[in-house]
Amino acid sequence: MTAPHKDDFGNPVGQPIDNWSGCEFPPRSDMVGNHVIVSPLDVARDAQQLFEANKTAGDGSRFTYLPTNAFDDFAAYKAWLDGMTANADPILHAIIDKATNRAVGVAAFMRIDAANGVVEVGNINYAPALSKTIGGTEAMYLMMKRAFDE
């Protein structure tokens, strides 16, 4: 076993990568699984379905760790989605249940630093129809596969 590479302070860090030149932003294309399609969010296509799916959650507690509260008003939710999808980062995705062809969740590639090969998956919000399902797990797998392998 080789000794770990250390920084100037003696802290163990990863091995240097020769000829690193950064990477590209994640592509804005569908990720298709057996149970879900993770698709770049299209406000016109997805907003109403997501709003309705989130209304089934009841008390809004699913929004506790998100940058906004639950929405009681569709126009406000749509305006928020319009703002979230207006920039290159985050790249918001709708998670579409293949069995129903309805959007039931959201997740984003965010805080993208292509020069250093960094991307975060966040802004995750699963409606009850997606929570604790194979499709919910598969959505995260598809996003990780894209982040690491594509």
TrEMBL record:
MF terms in GO: protein N-terminal-serine acetyltransferase activity; protein-N-terminal-alanine acetyltransferase activity
Keyword set, alphabetical order: Transferase
Domain of life of the source: Bacteria
Identification of the protein by name: GNAT family N-acetyltransferase
